[in-house]
Amino acid sequence: MHMQRLPKLLFTLGACCALSAAFAADEKSPGKLTIEIPAEVQATIDKERGEGKVQDFKRVNESDGTTYVVGLIIDGTHYALNLDAGGRVMRKEIDEVQPGGQDVTLDTLPPAVKKTLLREAHGAEIKGIDVTDVKKVYSVEVIYDGRKFRIEVDATGKLVLKEHVQDN
Fold this sequence. Notes:
With 168 residues, the chain is an alpha+beta fold.
């Protein structure tokens, strides 16, 4: 009985050793794994981060192809940069939790807002109230590298959104 388990045990140990060797080969420094990043993607990340820094990076396989999502910190602001497999910018937008972070409930809303929400919900349960502060935003459309983008900047000069609109 024990002899029958030996081949399975040896196979399992061999597989574990092979996997650990594969991971070890990818390590450039202790505790960090690296992945291959296409040159086009790396060039776009360098261009979009400017003087900022890369906070995090992930490759996402979606139904329409590979997408890269990069967390950037530029001038102290966190951004999410989405790139396609060719390294083209699809979207760049602010990605940060707004200060305060308090849960908003019906009871904490101004009376006029509460009254309108209850009236318009027609008795349906209201779950999760989002609050958006409206600020002046300047929006332009530009064409560069044969691609059309919408860029939005707030009154302080902070990038709010950079979004691919269409290819020309």
